[in-house]
Give the backbone structure.
Amino acid sequence: MLRAMLRDLRAHTGRMAMTLVAIVLGVAFVVATWVLSDSTAASLAGEGGRSTVDVVAQSPTNEAVLTEDDLARLSRLPGVRRATGILAARASLIGADGKLVAGAQDHAGTAWDDTDRFTILDGRPPTSADEVALSQAVAASANLRLGSRARVILGDGREVEAHVVGLFDYRMLGMETAPSVAFAPTTAHEYLGNEYDRIELHGPGLAPQVRAALPDPAIAVHTGAELTAKAHDEAASAAESTRESLLAFAVVALLVGMFVIANTFTMLVTQRVRQFALLRAVGATRRQVRRAVVLEAGALGVVGATIGVAVGIALGLLGMWAFTPDGEPVTYSVSPQGILVGYAVGIGVTVAAAYGSARRAAEAPPVAALRTDATPPRRTTVARTTAGAVLLVAGAATVASTAGPNLSTTERVVCMGAGVAGWLAVLLLAPVLAHAALTPLSRLLSRRRGPAVRLATRNAVRDPRRTAATSSALLVGLALVCAFATLGETMVSTLGGAVRNMVPPSATILRSASGVDPLSTDVLDRVRATPGVTGVAADRYTLVTVSTAGGTAASSISATEPAGFTTVLTPKLVEGNADLHRGVVVDTDQAAVLGLQLGDDLAIKFPNSRPVHQRVTGLIDTVEGQPLIYVDVAETPNWFHGNVTSIYATGATPSAVRQALDSEFRNRPDVVVTDREGVIATETADFQLLLSAMYAMFGAAIAIAIFGVINTLALSVMERTRELGLLRAIGAPRHLIRRTVRTESIVICTYGGALGIVVGTLFGAVMQHAMLGNPLQVTEIPTTTIATALLGMLTVGALSALWPAHRAARTNILTAIQTE
């Protein structure tokens, strides 16, 4: 039996080609994900880190607090061989083009020393005030080289110009931020301040002494081994997060692949029913036939997995190389676990998808071998249709029951689950929906169109299961694209609305050009002193932990001045009052998630600081991505006051204020002066970039679905060889056959695309309701994406049919008529 099946598989490799492509693409996606995540972890925690430091005393916050006295005190401890104070402060490097060099600026400046932190790659260390050394990778980004004149803007707004005399590579300790600018040790204190970010100590068993010697118990003391272990743990966690995110897209691709594989084996079993019946007639048991088909699928899975693993490794290594910045060290890693997962996925998915067909093959009765038109018994769809109908009704009822405003966390999860249930219901009801949609279309076109269209639509309706399986593969990919497009359009609209509600059109806004760092400490004072500016509100945005009577959760927060919050900004108050002197103001949806009402108490926990206890005094309407809690800056820790992320300025003449601020910061590339619409454009552009990356990920699933359409049409042509021969025998020209197959492909692709768009748009509405808290009817329809998808499906339908249509048109009439 095994030899017979493998011989048959080798004799008809062409009919498995597209199925093999589906397996290869799915496995390659999984393995590439594994290689990327493993290589990321190896690069983050790879060799090049320092292991010679024994103990580190470090500031507990972003603010440097260790003094020269602390350094002297620790250096005198018994057993200390060396103590080094490390300066780490804001230093914004300006590139040769006059623009801020991308990357974090907050700890980018440091002092050169003779420890093993630095490795000179070219030139020499800086020794005077007009000299500086740059990280090689950052220098390349800034288009600066040895001898260039570098501009650096310091944390207090001062600008320093110095000659580049050295390029270095930096060896990190733990997860510290690698500096990009190193000043001479004689002038570094003047530029970066007198306080140290940390003190590194060399000597055995120093940790207990260091803890006892420090006057501030909040200062963190770690051994070098602890920091190294923490770096490895965080690298592994980051890699795991990357892997989980990418595997979600890989699962979608594999799900689509399962539709393709299952559909292929269903058609192959239909075509080979006489072969299975003959095997039964000569003594093969049902178990043997079933096992033979499963082994055939397993052999195909092994071949596909082998190719997919090789392609996945190549793609993963290529992706790691492409996305690593120039000059950054990278470690490539291919783990045995990733390879084993690739084989397990390839073989497991193929066998699972083919198992239903294997069972049907085993049911072929021996008497079927005597029939010239043997077909397997039709499967009933009653159970599938019933399950789909129940899921659809239950999902719709659940979504309706959670359609109200201010959902709790549990209600959001239930709403999302109901949306997924509705999606699964559509997949289960796919044959019924295909028959219901295409039957009237076939009748309509049969009266008004030519023979090619009539034949094509009747072929699509002839086997609703096959049409449904083929179109479902397209449905999954397109539905995901449309769902996230709907979510994205709604989020962009909601985000724009939230910013417009909070910020008046007359306000001029200042932000850091890096997009990730706070503004320099001098910017707020300079804005207040600018002529024409009468009102200023400073936004200090961060993530904190919020504790309430119902539990603890993470939330975004903004600390601002109470006067500016109500005079410069325009919060959309829903209930209570917006006076931050009385307490905090919370977004209505966030209040529902945290279980808060007016008058309730909460505790805000900033890093390494005592909790800030406040009372809810007002509820406002805002959205995720904006601060969800506003608090009086005076109530926050002192170190947080300088963490200004945005500044809003108004005056009697808004245009004069904008002009004055543009002039004030004309020579400050680290500061962006913009307006309300500019902020909206920047924030939505970042989100649109994320959506574009997601669409590219879903592209793998759509590509697999396209191959599935080609495969279905090709096998359908093989299945209808006799029928095509008869059509040719009674005078049908070749162009009619080609047009028939092409039209059938367009019908299937258009149906799958249209259903995917409907399902995706509805699921996107549920997603935005559960995630953003907007009413279901407040959903933005992604018309551009929908139009592109429809046009794409028409194109895919036409292109997918090229090879099958060509093959069908070249069918030999006499050979086809003789085919059994």
Remarks:
- Residues 224-271 form the longest helix (48 residues).
- The chain is about 55% helix and 15% strand.
- The chain has a mean pLDDT of 84.
- Residues 320 and 727 are 54 Å apart (CA to CA).
